[in-house]
Design a protein that fits this description.
about 190 residues; alpha/beta; 4-stranded antiparallel beta sheet; 4-stranded parallel beta sheet; about 15% strand; globular
Amino acid sequence: MKQKFNIIKSTCVPLPLENIDTDQIIPARFLKATDKEGFGQNLFRDWRYNADGSPKDFVLNDPTYSGEILVAGKNFGCGSSREHAAWAIAGYGFRVVVSSFFADIHKQNEPVVVSEAFLQELFNSIKADPKTMVTVDVPAQTITNEATGKSEHFELNGYKKYCLMNALDDIDFLLENRQKIEAWEARNA
C-alpha cells in the first residue's frame, strides 16, 4: 500500500554491516513472484532463520529494536540488480533506509544518504538507547537524530520528492499527467 511520505519520526533498526548485497536482502530462491506482495516475510531470510525455520540471533528477531527506519552500513544493496530487494524492505515495514552509500537500485526507492560521521552517530545513539527517535523530513530534505539534535541534509531530485510526497510510483505519475501527455502528443503528431 502506497503512503504519502512527508515527515516520518520513528525508532530505528540498526544493521551496522557493510556491503549488504541483494541476495542477503532477499535470497534468489524467493524471486519467483512478479508482484510486490509477500517479500517482507523473507527479508534477510538466511540471516534471520536456520534451515529448520527457528530464529537466529539477528537484529530483526530482537524485540529491543523496531521502527520504520533501517540504518545500514556503507554500500547497502550491492550485488545483482533486483527490485525484489526494495519490495522486501518495504514489505517488512521499513519506509526509509539510511546509509552513507547505496547501490544504484536503491537510489530510486527508499534511501537517505548521510555522511559516514552522521551514520556512525546514529549507530552510537541507537546502541545507547534503542528508543532513539529519528525524523526524516522529505519537504525539507533533512534527517535529524533526536537524541543529539543534529541534522543533516540529504539529496533528493524534484521528481522523486514529488512522488514520495504524493504516494505516486512512476505509473501513477504518468496517469496523473495523462491529459498533458496526450495534449503534447496531439500537438507533436
